[in-house]
């Protein structure tokens, strides 16, 4: 059997750590490989590995091989040493290919022994070499024929980083026979990529050289891009360049783009996104001589609105209804020509919402499922036992869904559904269903007046729905009640104070919640009315018994207002109602139902009383005395003229100041008048006036030009003096101690003046007069 044998040996060197070493892949290639310009031959001493063991130039493993052939087996050439990045496994792929040859061939005679060919890679990381043996000890039968010729070899392996060189060695049965060193080419597929496009901008626009610019390395990792150079001038029309640069793991690259600056044109530059149900205006910018803009929605154009300063502000309230509407903004020049149209992006905020609270629902008790929601919830429905009920609108965050008669058992499955305005479900939650234990009580029972009342009345609280009346052990019947109060009609069932009467309170299911006994009282009546004195009394007073709640007066056939009464007594204001002893007055009493239970007359009496006055002495300032009876005010009449009335204080004494009424003589006439509460005169009493003590005066001559005062003395009941000069009265002055001194220097100016001094008592009466003699100095 004959066959061609391939010997394959490769060693690689790279800057790697031992932990980064990956398994190698060795594969024989059939086709010749192109030579690589980076391949160089070196001696063992030039290889960048550890020392390679010495080995003779020919194989001598077997004596037979040595005797039959002295042929030298060598690595003829390394044709290719290439590095490329493999994006599939994110590694650097290293390929090394070459040829192994010999000068002749030999035949091995049949032998029982075997021999082997070894292939070894040497990888250098700058320190100790690492050896990996492939096919070591692979046995070949002695009868195989080794064919002379050239054999092609190919080695391929992967590293995290590219290797710089490789050493290929050929061993035969463990003996080194040949080696070659190859320098790897610069790796391929390792160029970074800068992504940027040529741009066109308008004069005056802002140019951002880094906008939409990015870079990635050969392995897909992002890189930082730098502007290496730029000559862009956005204020002048022209063509400019921007050079970008980035440095990757292996290489640094640049890229140049062209920036064209053009003159402005009449155009809409940009329109801001319109948010449905949130935005109220369309905003954006324009360039050129645009005068007006308009809005077209689904092909229908609205009115035009003026714009200025490059800004678009277009009112759009209630015009855009859906994010699916086709919306276009049209721009017009000053002549009304359409110069540009631009579509408007309409978005709608994602609707979100939640049911935040569901109150427990009491089966057969509550009429509504209630709770709270938040967010964009617009509709609420209930699904009961798999059947969805009507959706209803909700506002203000409150859920209030009417379900009376729909939920009948706590075992029902109830779900509250929350929808947005478009009918999209936002949330679902189930309320807790509970049963209700009714509670209630009778809070008040009014006394029942036997023979007068027709209703048993009272109040209740809680779940009371029916009231039953039980008389002497027999319940008469049950009536429905609402509003917290009840009245049970029973005109004849309760006939005696000895009856036993109970009120029973039931819920809507006739469950007894409470019962209380009714207090029976004698029939209501007025027991007493005090006599009423016209002009003296103000109120009609009296007492009553039984279930009387209100009374009123009837005066001369006219019914007056009702007033409430308590505690068995009443007091009705009547001063303005009863004005004469001849008035006909009744007190009418009513029970709580408004039924008249009693009527009694009021005895009316005329005003009575007495009035006395004390002796009045001229000079006194008050008239005093006593009174009794219906007199409520005192007045004074002097010489037919009256002063104002004053109220009495109830003590039986009065004191009336008359200092301003001018009582100066015993010939004056004074009356004391007593009036009742209406101002009607009850009694009149004449007051006795006493002269009191007389007075005298004595004056000195007045020396004109020397004296300043008129001087003298007085005695008796003198309290004031005054001068009279030539018939003209001067002012009064008080005196005391019996001395007269009246300033007169400016009053008496001639010896011919007629001067008198006049003396007055405390009442203002004249008690003495004296002429003053005026003499020269």
TrEMBL record:
UniProt keyword list: Lipoprotein, Signal
Signal peptide: 1-28
Domain Pesticidal crystal protein Cry22Aa Ig-like: 197-259
Bacterial Ig domain location: 269-347, 355-430, 440-521, 529-605, 609-691, 695-775
InterPro entries per UniProt: Big_15, Cry22Aa_Ig-like, Ig-like_fold
Name used for this protein in its record: Lipoprotein
Taxonomic source organism: Listeria grandensis FSL F6-0971
Upper lineage: Bacteria, Bacillati, Bacillota, Bacilli, Bacillales
